[in-house]
Amino acid sequence: MSSLPPQPLSPLDGRYRAAVSPLADFLSEAGLNRARVEVEVEWLIALTDRSLFGSSPLSDADKTRLRALYVDFGQTEIDWLAEKEAVTRHDVKAVEYLVRDRLSTLGLDAIAELTHFACTSEDINSASYAITVQRAVAQVWLPKLRAVIAKLAGIADEHRDAAMLSRTHGQPATPSTMGKEIAVFAWRLERVAAQIEGGDYLAKFSGATGTWSAHLAAEPDVDWPELSRSFIEGLGIGFNVLTTQIESHDWQVELYDRVRHAGGILHNLATDIWTYISLGFFAQIPVAGATGSSTMPHKINPIRFENAEANLEISGGLLQTLSQTLVTSRMQRDLTDSTTQRNIGVAFGHSLLALDNLERGLGEISLAQHVLLADLDANWEVLAEAIQTVVRAEIAAGRSQITDPYALLKDLTRGRRVGGAELAEFVRGLDIGDAAKQRLLELTPATYTGLASALVDEL
Question: What CATH superfamily is the domain 379-458?
């Protein structure tokens, strides 16, 4: 059997590339290397700005040309680094050599020895990962999550008054509205989104074991911790002053756990919408030319929600592994985090793909209100809760002599279908005040929704 032409192994780089490609600008190998070049270049500028080791501040023109190394980072640099790393067997060292090479091209050889000055690889890496993950989350992942939240909020508002039979434990229960039930998901997701937005993205920049030992050996009169802090914060990320050789990754653990939490809520949403479609509460809007089944022409499968469900499970598993692995480093450093962090993009990719499917899927469903109303009308026994609660209130107010209202309603309704006429007859015979009796007689499953509609305003 002949070999295929080169093919992507991951579906994220094949079938689903269009949906997740924006992440590649940040969380791919090339995106990481571009960030590494950015950190190396900005460190050079920070050192020369302070005229350290006989250097002088660069002109604005030289700074612009130097920054072009990462601003215009492209295929030429990607190929150069691949060839160099094949020799160095060290990715960060290859980046250092790239910067040195470009300094020579720019006529800036005089500052070449300040490239990667006093840095361990993890100084560059921790800053680069913080930059790339922060940008990926802020510019790609969070906007897609917020698009889903906005879609949910719109559906919640549209269907705030659409009464529906609830199902607790899968059984008919006190009615709600479809809008309020969808609002619950928007509310939950908004809370986690806010936590993610407020999270830290930290880097260290303190040398081989986090002690600034080489820095002080080279120049003891510089406040290196303060210089490192101002440098890192100037990159738009936070500074971790107390570390080993690596930044401790706790901010990553926090982030990935929160993203996984959001994924769990989204998974719950996907399975609930799937179930509502199965019950006929939502009808799926046919897409021209689409095929639901290879053999059953009538079918419209809820594939958006099934796809989201599966990808959230894959993403959640990867995010959990990232959290479990990154929280630990043997003594001052081991390399388990290096391999693990290369899968950050994969974890976010599956999550982003799920969000994309959910956003699309939510735009391809239509509420079948007649189905909701028919379901309500077939389950008048859910008013038993209202009746026994009103009876209890009447007993407490001294307007009823009934001794056990719960048992009374349980005998009438448990395991039985009770129609509107039968319930009305039962209510008329109750020993309660006339006003309470009238309220109960006017109640229907479709109007027994409490504050469901008003609760949507909490969004």
Answer: Fumarase/aspartase (C-terminal domain) (1.10.40.30)
